[in-house]
């Protein structure tokens, strides 16, 4: 399973795709402070991702790193996500089983 752009939509570099996780708390522990979104539950890991993940006050935002054609799988780097939270051990557990 994965997340794919549909047959009628594509993304340009910099386009917002959506939120993978929403921020719901501020304890300093990823597994308590963030809730996975519907689209987040379908993201697969890639060494050459076509999406970047940005930490925003609202959560983890997915944005196109490049042009993405319709019917293309949307992928992120789990390593890049883990690196956003260098002092939080819970992020590895949460993302490892994403």
Offer a few descriptive terms.
four-stranded antiparallel sheet, 98 residues, alpha+beta, 7 strands, three-stranded mixed sheet
Short description:
The protein contains three helices and seven strands; from the N terminus they run E-E-H-E-E-E-E-E-H-H.
Describe this structure in words.
With 98 residues, the protein is an alpha+beta fold. Helix content is 17%, strand content 32%. It contains three helices and seven strands. It has a four-stranded antiparallel β-sheet with strand order 3-2-6-5. Strands 1-7-4 form a three-stranded mixed β-sheet. A hairpin with a 2-residue loop joins strand 5 (51-56) and strand 6 (59-64). The longest helix is centred in the C-terminal third of the chain and has 7 residues, at 90-96. It is elongated and about 40 Å long. The relative contact order is 0.28. The mean pLDDT is 94.
Give the helices and strands, then pairings.
Elements: E1 3-4, E2 16-23, H1 30-33, E3 34-36, E4 44-45, E5 51-56, E6 59-64, E7 73-76, H2 78-83, H3 90-96
Parallel strand pairs: 4-7
Antiparallel strand pairs: 1-7, 2-3, 2-6, 5-6
């Amino acid at each position: 399973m994965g997340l794919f752009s549909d047959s009628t939509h594509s993304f340009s570099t910099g386009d917002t795709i959506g939120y993978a996780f929403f921020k719901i708390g501020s304890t300093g522990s990823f597994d308590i402070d963030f809730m996975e979104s519907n689209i987040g539950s379908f993201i697969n890991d890639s060494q050459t991702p076509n999406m970047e993940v940005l930490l925003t006050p609202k959560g983890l935002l997915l944005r196109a790193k490049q042009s993405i054609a319709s019917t293309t799988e949307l992928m992120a780097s789990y390593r890049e996500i883990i690196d956003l939270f260098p002092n939080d051990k819970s992020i590895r557990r949460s993302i490892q089983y994403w």
